[in-house]
Amino acid sequence: MNKIVTILSILGYIFFLQYAYSHLISPVYSYYTLTNLHPSAGVHLLSAFLAVLPACFANISVKRPSQAVFWILYLFVAVPIMIIPDYVRENPFDDFFFFKLCVLLSLCILYGAGKMNLLEVYQFKVYPLFIKLGLGVLAIGLLFILIKTYGLKTKLVGFDDVYDVRFSYRDSTIGISGYVLSWWSKIVGPGLFVWGIVSKKYLFLFLGLVAQFIAYNISGQKSIILSVVFIVAVMLAMFKKGQFFGRNFSILAFLLVTGCFLMDQLSGGIAFTELISRRLLMLPAVLTSHYFDFFSINPQTHLGHSVLGWLFPYSYHSTPAFLIGETYFGDAEVSANANLWADAFSAFGYFGVFLFTCILSFILWIYDSFVEGKNVLFFTGFIVMPVWGLIDSSLITSMLTHGILIAILLACFLRTDGIKSK
């Protein structure tokens, strides 16, 4: 019965995602390459079948953080890739169809890695007081850098003013300060928030909200506000110790897209679908199609703009995100970030999709090994925001800038002895 509910929820999620795209988003954003070429019913059925296929075989129970990551990437990255590009491609059965199959195989790799035997790692035994002092000093140090660089802004920034705030943030960012803000909003704030939920110490929950408030006021990034909703959704899906995570998260994804659509129907606008469904799900999927088209006929990057610049020459004048923005939107200032698999294809083609998936699987396997025997609810919530970066940015960016590697490092030392039984 739980499997049936999961599949039906995903089918409902797919239907409302398609309907919202074709009736709300495409009519307004067709100039932004979010077109509607009216794919046939057969295309819709085949893509929906591919999108729902992993749910037919995946276990809905989550016992490790990596298993929750599988469901997050499946519903928020893979499913949109299966269905949204059909609207912008003249022939949905062209070579991009094979890219879809590669994404499905990548999901299989992620799922299989979540079943592997864990490493027996040495658990660092550090006095809890030293850990608390170290974390406190680290948080205060990051906050000091933020205040020194950007100042302390206490007035809540309205959504209408975020673009001015973003320009100011970019102009003020120097050196490591950009990394600091990302670590603050994806590690410190969410970490405090999740700890407050799991331990039922609501002071930490409040401090986490304050931390996110500070980060949002500095950068104007709406995703920081939405991060609180995302964390709460994952925590709700972990109800009953993750026994029904896949089912619960599928229901929440369905309610998210459906709720946005219904709110827009009642208000007569597209604000909710635009803010959440378009930005989080639809646009990265369309950009994936653009990445595929561009790097199928042009030289791949081989990470020559990044960590392998010492080994491979780079063929372009800007990074892939700005290159796609300039090519498809006619603006060299547009950063068209997609997701981990789009970036992987831009680097090494189909091979890159599998390579980056294996690297991510290995990283999550290490994380699982470090948190084995600890509170799975906390460490699942703790990795959520660093992993969220994979939805609309590259694996390397998520590892370094969004804090995946920092989360693994902290997992070596963080202890949850006092909340194991709660």
Automatic annotation (TrEMBL):
Keywords: Membrane, Transmembrane, Transmembrane helix
Superkingdom of this protein's organism: Bacteria
Ranges in a coiled coil: none
TM region positions: 41-61, 68-84, 96-114, 126-147, 176-195, 202-218, 224-239, 251-272, 347-367, 374-391, 397-414
Protein name per UniProt: Oligosaccharide repeat unit polymerase
